Amino acid sequence: MLKVDDVETVLERCATFHGHLCLGQVVGVRMAKKGLELVVAEDIKDLIVMVENDRCITDAILMATGARLGRRSLKFFDYGKMAATFVNQSTGRAWRIHSRGEADKLPKDESMAWALAAEDAELLSWQPVTVAFGPGDLPGPPERIVHCARCGETVLDYRDVPAGQGEVYALCRACAFGTYYQPMI
Ligand SMILES: [Zn+2]
Ligand SMILES: [Zn+2]
Q1: 29, 30, 48, 84: most buried, per Cβ within 10 A?
Q2: What's the average model confidence in pLDDT over 120-131?
Q3: What is the reported pLDDT for 162?
Q4: How far is the CA of 177 from the centre of ligand 2 (A)?
Q5: Is residue 42 located within the same domain as residue 83?
């Protein structure tokens, strides 16, 4: 069963990967430990983790669980929240865990030690949830590969957009909705 056996050992690996040891690493590892206990996943292939920010805790969660963005087992939702949802794909069991933020109220030099020693319920709150995965969301080979009718670039996994009502060709999201970048030439 996937689990975090020893928080301190995992934290050492997190500090190396993340670049420093911080409160977010401690909270993230504690969230991962609780999440794995709740979803009872036998194998890394059964686990999908949704993270809700791109700050310190996310690095800790991916290190502690083995979930990876490039394996489609880690998914990023840009909510700016200190929370993550742990899903056991094979059973459908899913739990969302939220950091209560109590450690943030303490002086910086005390907060990490407190977060390490706190009871789960002092540090975190958790609730069972369901997560509906869409077509092309799960690990495995791409289920759909198309080329954008405008830019010609490849679009995987149903992320293309129908070009219009009744149109059979598809656009990439950049061509359909606009880009986060502006071409210079
Ligand atoms: Zn950090
Ligand atoms: Zn395009």
Answers
A1: 84
A2: 98
A3: 83
A4: 10
A5: yes
124 bridge partner residues: 99
Confirm whether pTM is higher than 0.90. Answer: yes
Share of the chain above pLDDT 70, in %: 99
Between 57 and 163, the higher pLDDT residue: 57
142 burial class (0-12, 13-18, 19+ CB within 10 angstroms)? exposed
**Ligand 2 center to residue 107 CA distance, Å?**
49
Assigned domain for 184 exists: no
Number of domains in the chain: 2
**Residues 36/67, Cβ–Cβ less than 8 Å:** no
* Ligand 2 geometric centre to CA of 161 (Å): 10
Name residue, tokens 């009502």: 165
Please provide the DSSP assignment of 28-83 as one string.
HHHHHHHHHHHH--SSGGGEEEEES-SSHHHHHHHHHH---GGGTSEEE-----SE
User: Which domain, by its residues, includes 164?
Assistant: 145-177
